[in-house]
Amino acid sequence: MRPGVDAARVSPRPASDYTSSGPAADTSRDGPAISTSPSSRAKRPAAICGSKSLRGPATPPPGARRITPSEDLQAAVEGSRPGTTFWLAPGRHGLGDDEFDQVGPKDGQSFVGAPGAVVDGRHVNRYAFGGDGADVTIKHLTVENFVSPRNEGVVNHDSGDGWRIKRNTIQHNDGAGVFLGDGNVVAHNCLAHNGQYGFSAFEPDGVRDVVLKRNEVMGNNTDDWEQREPGCGCTGGGKFWDTRGALVLANWIHHNHGVGLWADTNNTEFLVRGNHISHNAAEGMIYETSYNARIVHNTFVRNGLAEGPDCDCFPLSALYVSESGSDPRAGTRYARALTVAHNRFVDNWSGIMAWENADRFAGSPANTSTGFTTLVNPDVATEQACSNPNLIGTAPYVDDCRWKTQHLRVRDNVFRFHPSRLGAECVPSAGCGWMGLFSNVGSSPEWSPYQGEVVEDNITFEQDNTWADNRYEGPWRFIVHDMGNAVDWRTWRGAPFRQDKGSTLR
């Protein structure tokens, strides 16, 4: 969650010490090299929504069972063997008149839509496809007008394992368009204008090894849940919760009514590569109380312009890293550093905010991830132990009860910022044009061992967080150590902070 009203606005000091030099080389092994020139244009990806790539076969695939709009699809499923393929003919396919009428596939069954095949919830049914069937395939269908409740999903409602959801249009539904289960692949879909999320990943025991690739995730959170339930943290293009081994690759995530991409609570071994994240009302991406990630070769364009001017806390950023860092105890992949590298940031409300709430730890009243503790020592640093005033100040609890922003590497990125392109509201006092590494003064609960400047000092000087070899264009300003400490380029780079070695600002 974003910090609350205790986060004061910053008062900028004038920037100085502008320097320039050549671009840093792109040495990442996570994808092809991209231009790191500040003048390179952020091109819009090719649209998935409405494209010919979504059109299915005009005739049934070999061996497929043909289903007309007048037939009972669920009855056909029940009367068929596992592994059967169903070809849905053109037209609108309804699922019955009860709110719980839905399709419950058997293992290995496939559902392929002809051009014009629509599974229509008619604003009656909650779910389109659910149940515990594994290795199900959904392709070339339009799924719309379902009324899934908040925090529930329409396609793969029960988070079945091994589902393949490809080249569908999933739109105009309540709740989440798609739920992700273990081993799911969600690729080349249009996930648009759903009430809460385009997609969501949650299971009580966590979600493992999901792939979200080349989707267009557009215009979601039409029900504006953050306004209906302030602080719910339940809005945007899509959300991951307690997910290990997610691959988020080459998606176009744009114009969502809230955050574009949100990973919240105990996600780890997370790769976000080659995505175009643009024009989302709030942050382009949040990585929160999570671990071990690579956020590389992405483009962030004009995020936060809708909510940024109204933010009464601190600068609303394109990328918000909140209580997140690397730790080998949380997984072997990306365990040495949480890397943010080779990305382009173009005219967002602000850049990167790396933050750690001094009052947030497992067992604390300020911890909004109720029922969860950290991944680093979960059998010992339990939520109950971490809320014990007699234990929290002692080893190992004082370290292992906290989610920490640590071992963060922000390197080889391009940050372009032109206030004149963001409108008259883009002024420093409104949180526009900032980069930050900071915390707040610890104040609660009264038994917390993190009172005062303990966490401010740790995130700034002790937890191995570094910016380096970046290229800046525009009047950037910096917040470091504490929320009121606005510094210029020279101070950000000099002692004692020593950030952005090898970087340039033009």
From TrEMBL:
In terms of Gene3D superfamilies, this protein maps to: Single-stranded right-handed beta-helix, Pectin lyase-like
Which SMART domains does the entry link to? PbH1
Write down the Pfam families for this protein, in alphabetical order. Answer: Beta_helix
Residues of the region (Disordered) are 1-69
- InterPro entries, per this entry? Beta_helix, PbH1, Pectin_lyas_fold, Pectin_lyase_fold/virulence
Q: Which residues form the Right handed beta helix domain?
A: 156-304
Name of the protein described by the UniProt record = Right-handed parallel beta-helix repeat-containing protein
